[in-house]
Design brief:
By secondary structure, the protein is mainly β. It has helices at about 225-235, 240-245, 285-295, 305-310, 375, 385, 410-415, and strands at about 10-15, 25-35, 35-50, 60-70, 75, 80, 90-95, 100-105, 110-125, 135-145, 150-155, 165, 175, 190, 220, 335, 345, 400-405, 445, 480-485.
Length: about 475
């Protein structure tokens, strides 16, 4: 029989982020150690999990973190201990060094649905009285491990615009460490076409050692962030923070009606925002809400170097390739079933070619589709048919643009990849001072969106990379987060 805590009256809540069928359930508090700590027990499951020792040599994982409130007060971030955690059979738990969250993943090679029971994380707390009422929320986000190692930026014989290269346009730059990188149009150095104001950048450098090159290992969200994830974040904010970070306000859609499939609604003064389509990738979020979400979740932005590593891995670039590693691409407009549901599918998915949401396949309803739709609809489940990257990351080409940290101006190059700590300012702002927050023009975007033509989808293409509206709310721009593995 489990030992239940007797000092705390518990109100336990499970957050089910159902977009990709990741599920947290059966939450309880166990083995309370007086006024110091308690173990949070829960079950965790998700579909299509894997771990593989060959090829990509990687795995998928759940990034798990906990929020709590005392006596219906404000939600706070739970500090986790690196001791006294319990992994379920077949799993590994890596609690982050800062105690913000934990990665949970398979402990050996395998694939398929993963069901883990009676996991435990130790929550170190203070200022809790024996008569307090505690509410708990456990959050889980699907991530993919991108291992340490060299890779190539840009180059190749394609005609991608403003692409990175070394020496000449047809030669890739080999990233072999996290050391500083010189910017110069000569052999062995990194360079790119400045292009227009929308494109490559100022051609200045160096790229500092602190800027994440993608050589070091990191975890990347398997899917683009969803409406459900943003609503879950928003609903833990204070009333003041909600007024400032309203996803239906100026930093979001600026309306209560649906626009390009964004269905989030919230009435000022009401308790919670809602969405009827939690599984659809989130658009119409500007950088203010973006960085707030990343800090709240204990994650960080992705650099544009890390974007290319996440797409192609260590493979030498191919001319004009998409995230699945070649130029084969579907051209027939998709038709859909189960629209606006967690099982939204494509009924005429292309076989033996690359599948992607862009202007030739977008179909109706127009706008971003539910995350993971290509993999769920594929027939043969190949990398091409699912649109997956070398490491198994979905929709890095198409659906929505990926916001990344720019290497083409001083604001982007000054980025230091510190993680969010789960806590926000009184106004709900991120407070990681090494991110481009005060002066936001260190952002760019890559990978194309549902309304773009195929040229924008190419891994090395940076044509619109530095457009000024990369910091604004747009129907075409979404985001995903990363976290350094070390």
């Amino acid at each position: 029989m489990k030992t239940k805590t007797t000092l705390l009256i518990l109100m336990l809540f499970c957050l089910n982020l159902s977009a990709n069928n990741i599920n947290v359930s059966n939450i309880s508090l166990e083995n309370q150690n007086a006024a110091q700590w308690v173990q949070v027990e829960f079950d965790l499951s998700w579909e299509n999990s894997w771990r593989i020792s060959a090829g990509p040599s990687n795995w998928d994982a759940a990034w798990v973190f906990i929020k709590y409130r005392i006596n219906s007060g404000d939600w706070q971030h739970a500090q986790l201990s690196q001791s006294d955690f319990v992994a379920a059979s077949g799993s590994t738990i890596d609690v982050s060094k800062d105690g913000v969250g934990a990665f949970i993943y398979r402990d050996s090679d395998g694939s398929g649905d993963l069901i883990l029971q009676d996991l435990r994380l130790r929550w170190d707390y203070d200022s809790i009285d024996s008569n307090d009422i505690i509410d708990i929320k456990v959050f889980a986000i699907e991530m993919v491990y991108v291992p340490e190692g060299p890779f190539f930026l840009g180059g190749g014989t394609g005609d991608e615009r403003a692409k990175f290269y070394s020496g000449n346009l047809n030669t890739s730059y080999n990233v072999t460490s996290e050391n500083a990188i010189s910017i110069s149009n000569g052999n062995g150095n990194l360079y790119y076409d400045a292009g227009s104001i929308l494109s490559g950048g100022d051609q200045l450098g160096p790229i500092p050692a602190s800027y994440p090159k993608g050589y070091n290992a990191f975890y990347c969200m398997k899917y683009e962030a969803t409406q459900g994830q943003v609503v879950a974040y928003f609903n833990t904010l204070t009333e003041v923070q909600k007024a400032e970070k309203d996803p239906t306000g100026p930093h979001g859609t600026n309306r209560q009606s649906t626009v390009y499939r964004n269905n989030i609604t919230w009435t000022p003064g009401s308790a919670n925002a809602t969405t009827t389509t939690p599984d659809i990738a989130i658009n119409y979020i500007d950088y203010v809400i973006l960085v707030s979400y990343l800090d709240w979740a204990g994650l960080r932005p992705m650099s544009e170097f890390e974007y290319e590593k996440a797409c192609r891995g260590p493979i030498l670039p191919k001319a004009n390739e998409y995230a699945w590693g070649n130029t084969n691409i579907a051209t027939e407009e998709y038709t859909f079933s189960n629209i606006d549901t967690p099982s939204e599918l494509i009924t005429n998915i292309a076989q033996n070619t690359g599948n992607i949401i862009y202007n030739s396949t977008d179909g109706l309803p127009s706008g971003p589709k539910r995350v993971g739709i290509l993999a769920a609809s594929s027939i043969n489940h190949t990398r091409e048919e699912t649109g997956g990257s070398y490491y198994g990351i979905m929709e890095l080409s198409g659906n929505l643009y990926e916001r990344v940290i720019y290497a083409g101006n001083p604001n982007g190059r000054a980025f230091v990849p510190n993680h969010g700590d789960g806590n926000l300012t009184n106004l709900g702002d991120a407070d990681v001072d090494t991110w481009p927050i005060i002066n936001p023009f260190g952002w760019a975007y890559r990978g194309g969106a549902f309304a773009n033509t195929s040229t924008f989808m190419r891994v090395s293409d940076r044509y619109e990379s530095a457009a000024a509206y990369s910091t604004t709310n747009s129907s075409r721009i979404g985001f995903r987060a990363v976290r350094s593995a070390n």
